[in-house]
Amino acid sequence: KLAGCTLFITGASRGIGKAIALKAAKDGANIVIAAKTAEPHPTLPGTIYTAAAEIEAAGGKALPCVVNVREEQQIINAVEKAVKTFGGIDILVNNASAISLTGTLETETKKVNLMMDVNVRGTYLTSKTCLPHLRKSRNPHILNLSPPMNMNPMWFKNHCAYTISKYGMSMCVLGMAEEFRGEVAVNALWPKTAIHTAALDMLGGSGIEKQCRKTDILADAAYCILTKPKSFTGNFVIDEVLLREEGVKDFDVYAIAPGHPLIPDFFLDEEKKLSGSQREGPGGAKVNAESAPAKPLSPVAETFRVIQGAMSEEYVRATQGVFQFELSGDDGGTWYIDLKTKGGSAGVGKPPVTADVVMSMSSADFVKMFTGKLKPTMAFMSGKLRIKGNMTLAIKLEKMLTQLNSKL
Question: Which part of the chain is the SCP2 domain (predicted)?
Answer without folding.
Answer: 312-401
